[in-house]
Design a protein that fits this description.
Blueprint: E1 7-11, H1 18-26, E2 34-36, E3 40-41, E4 56-57, H2 60-68, E5 72-78, E6 81-86, H3 87-95, E7 99-103, H4 106-115, E8 120-125, H5 129-138, H6 144-158, E9 166-169, H7 173-188, H8 196-203
Helix pairs in contact: 1-7
């Protein structure tokens, strides 16, 4: 029924829960045909992270080789590490008839918008800065300096909210997940995203 697959770009300050939301939605039968794109990064693995599930962990030389060959739709340096979205991965998912949900930072989202690739831009907010700090500390994965850097960056990222089409406040994971699913479903039914040939074929109009 739909035309070419849709690209949903989701950004949020670190600790707001965007990656969890994206992965949960992609695995939900309620939306179907939605794949979570896995980014490349040069940062090290955190405890519990798996190659190809959370990120593709690569060296800086490997990242540079992909970047210089035009293999990334977007890439950015965040907290001293490189992150990029593989063009080949997106094309593979679209070719299989799926939509893509992509969680990237505000730098990457800006580059996608500037590239003219198109997409639906969604920003996830925590309920407050105090709650964001609490979440960052509860992860027990960063030292005090890193937490402070992430909080300072969060303020700058939140200033970019006007670049997005939708805002979702993640004060309750299930509620935020429902709202994110509602955005995906609504965008799929917009007239410009529906294949008119499907209507002609099925209804003879």
């Amino acid at each position: 029924m739909n035309k070419k697959g849709l690209l949903f770009i989701v950004s949020a300050p670190s600790g707001a829960g965007k990656t969890t939301l994206c992965k949960e939605l992609a695995s939900s039968p309620a939306v179907g045909s939605l794949r979570h794109s896995v980014s490349h990064t040069t940062r090290g693995k955190r405890p519990g992270e798996m190659e190809g599930e959370h990120y593709y962990f690569v060296s800086e030389d490997k990242f540079a080789a992909i970047r210089d060959s035009g293999g990334f739709v977007e890439w950015a340096k965040v907290h001293g590490n490189l992150y990029g979205t593989s063009r080949a991965e997106l094309e593979r998912i679209f070719a299989g008839g799926g939509d893509v949900i992509l969680d990237i930072d505000t730098q990457g989202a800006a580059k996608v918008r500037e590239s003219g690739t198109g997409g639906v831009f969604i920003f996830i907010l925590p309920p407050s800065m105090q709650e964001l700090e609490k979440r960052l500390r509860s992860r027990n994965s960063d030292d005090e300096d890193e937490i402070r850097r992430r909080l300072a960056r969060a303020v700058e990222e939140i200033k970019s909210f006007g670049m997005y089409d939708y805002i979702i406040v993640n004060d309750n994971m299930l509620k935020a997940l429902d709202e994110l699913a509602a955005v995906v479903k609504a965008e799929r039914r917009k007239l410009q995203n529906v294949d008119p040939e499907w209507i002609t074929k099925n209804f003879g109009v």
